[in-house]
Amino acid sequence: MKNHIRIEDINDKGIIVINNIFDNDEFSKINSEINKLIQNKRSKNGKIVLIDDDLKESLLFELYKKNKIKTVVNEIFNHNKLQLDIEDNYKVLRVLTGNNSDNDNQNYHFDGYYLTAMLPILIPKEKDNFNGDFLIAPNIRHVYKHKKINLLIKYFFQNKIAKIFYKTIFFNKIFKPIKISPQENSLILFKGFESLHGSEMLGKNRTRITLLYHFNKMK
After folding, report:
1. Terminus-to-terminus CA distance in the chain, angstroms?
2. What does the alpha-carbon distance between residue 217 and residue 219 come to, in Å, rounded to a whole number?
3. Are 130 and 181 in contact (CB under 8 A)?
């Protein structure tokens, strides 16, 4: 991993991006494994989603334990003086097909875990704006000790009215979300519990595959 990593960016900028996280052989094996997992799966509402035990028999189940990922995750938790339980994680393989993708267009949300690690596996590279680019308003949510307050804030940002608001120019002017065009074989890290995030429209019949690991469930 030759990238220079500035751990402070997780707080200062709200996001860390590391390119070429795996060598070519490793990334090829990951792609092959994913193709095996999804080849007989039917998409529902334009997507295939496999979680936790769905991945148990594949190398994806413990991919987060690779030194390249585990090391930087540990450094983020140490930097913020937090205890990391590496086994306290939630795994998601997400395949979008571009059909019915308006449901995912700017569908902003918070995660239920402190840190999110996203691995873009297959990303469209068309010249228009329909590649499902990643959008994030980083570190805007304060973490409260009381669970009910945290749930109330989440509901405020995740409801039918909020979904309409996210597609207006007013949202962009107020929250100024960062737009990132994910690169395949990169690692994108952000504080999912505190950061409002989603993705742009994905063009019809285009495939976008991401593998996500969420660390340390918030109480």
Report:
1. 33
2. 6
3. no
In this predicted structure, what is the pLDDT of residue 101? Answer: 59
Contact 124, 206 (CB under 8 A): yes
Q: Is the dihedral of CA 177, 178, 182, 185 positive or negative?
A: negative
What dihedral do alpha carbons 145, 148, 150, 152 form, nearest 10°? -150
Cβ atoms of residues 114 and 197 within 8 Å: no
Which residues are registered as beta bridge partners of 49?
Answer: 94
Number of structural domains in the chain: 1
Residue 170 domain boundaries: 9-217
Greatest Cα pair distance, the chain, in angstroms, is 46
Kindly state whether residue 4 falls inside one of the protein's structural domains. Answer: no
Which residue type is seen at 93?
A: L
Single-letter residue type at 207 = T
Q: Which CATH number fits the domain that encloses residue 69?
A: 2.60.120.620
For 17-63, how does the pLDDT look when each residue is reduced to its tens digit (9 = 90+)? 999 999 999 999 999 999 999 988 888 878 899 999 999 999 999 99
pLDDT digits (tens, 9 = 90+) for 65-77: 988 899 999 999 9
